[in-house]
Specification:
By secondary structure, this protein is of the alpha/beta class. It contains twelve helices and eight strands. The protein has an eight-stranded parallel barrel, surrounded by eight helices. The relative contact order is 0.16. The C terminus is likely disordered. Bound molecules: dihydroflavine-adenine dinucleotide. Dihydroflavine-adenine dinucleotide binds next to β4, β5, β7 and α11.
Length: about 300
């Protein structure tokens, strides 16, 4: 890691909001639902679909969870009113998971029920290790009640993930597979990038073997290439998987995949809680700050 990257990743949590906002504006559609609608319409016009996410996680009261639930229900209305190609992603902690598990389940259930009514879909994001078991339990219960309308996320950095794929294989599987973004201990997670990548492709193959619909969520070209090989080996049709990428990240790669005819979904976050999300993205890739600084000072070259 270069000194610049090291400094950004160590100091980003203390940088004032407006500065982070400047660097991270490409990662977030805006503060309001209308912003996510506009961003999604733009992606749709470029042949991509979206998953809309209202930013917010690890809340302090159940009232906040109720407010987030209402916002999710509004998102479905907006998707239908504007004829958007989009579904919804939500975080269990945003729905109250760490405050009251039953209340969180009932909030998420209400949202999935609304999705089912509208013929839409909810992706339950995966958070850190204290949330994993409950999230998978919610997914199991909801897929039984609303088949085809709910999916979840598995993280390739977790040692447990191949086992989770095997045990979830007793029902239809709709999984977003990502590397994983939280800072987990070595006890739970592989820490070496090459091992995470190897586990990613191992898990992806297990999922394909089990006939899962997979959202291949990565911007890592080595993984994209590995996924393309597996798609080819398993003879999958274009509607049997999708690639997924974050708003504002590697648009060139995403355009290349779209041009090759792959289904591509962009994660479109919006909302007032944009700051922690943006800080996480910047911490993850300090190069963004570098590019933005260069742009700001009119420096060209590498
Ligand atoms: P990697 O981090 O190696 O990045 C590969 C390349 O992509 C980098 O070299 C860089 O060029 C570019 N890149 C990656 N991230 C960037 C960024 N933030 N800014 C700019 N460039 C960047 N995690 C989780 O724990 N739970 C979840 O529910 C989700 N959900 C989710 C949805 C979607 C659609 C995506 C794409 C990702 C997630 N993630 C997630 C995050 C995921 O776990 C992972 O942290 C990031 O995708 C980065 O990993 P990559 O596979 O892209 O590889």
């Amino acid at each position: 890691m270069s000194l610049f990257n090291f400094l950004v990743s160590k100091t980003i949590m203390h940088v004032p909001g407006p500065v982070v906002g400047y660097f991270a504006k490409d990662y977030v559609a805006g503060r309001r639902l209308e912003d996510s609608v506009a961003a999604t319409a733009d992606l749709n016009s470029q042949g991509m679909i979206a998953t809309i996410d209202v930013l917010g996680e690890f809340i302090k009261t159940l009232d906040e969870a109720t407010a987030f639930k209402e916002q999710c229900l509004e998102i479905f209305k907006a998707i239908d009113n504007h004829g958007l190609g989009a579904n919804l992603s939500l975080k269990p902690s945003q729905m109250g998971l760490l405050l009251d598990k039953d209340a969180a389940f009932s909030n998420i259930r209400e949202i999935v029920a609304a999705a089912a009514e509208r013929g839409n879909f909810v992706r339950i994001d995966m958070e850190d290790v204290p949330c994993t078991d409950a999230t998978l339990d919610f997914y199991r219960r909801l897929r039984a009640e609303f088949p085809g309308c709910v999916g979840t996320v598995l993280q390739a950095y977790l040692r447990r993930t191949p086992g989770d794929i095997a045990s979830l294989g007793d029902g239809p599987l709709n999984i977003r597979l990502c590397k994983g973004i939280y800072n987990e201990s070595r006890e739970h997670a592989y820490k070496d990038g090459a091992v995470v990548n190897s586990n990613y492709l191992y898990c992806l193959e297990k999922l394909f073997e089990q006939g899962a619909y997979v959202g291949i969520a990565t911007h890592d070209e080595a993984l994209v290439q590995g996924a393309l090989r597996l798609i080819d080996r398993y003879g999958l049709e274009r509607d049997q998987y999708e690639f997924q990428m974050l708003l504002g990240v590697d648009e060139q790669l995403r355009n290349l995949l779209v041009a090759q005819g792959h289904r591509l979904r962009v994660y479109v976050p919006f909302g007032e809680s944009w700051l922690p999300y943006s800080k996480r993205r910047l911490k993850e890739n300090p190069m963004i700050a570098k590019h933005a600084l260069r742009q700001m000072f009119g420096i060209h070259g590498h």
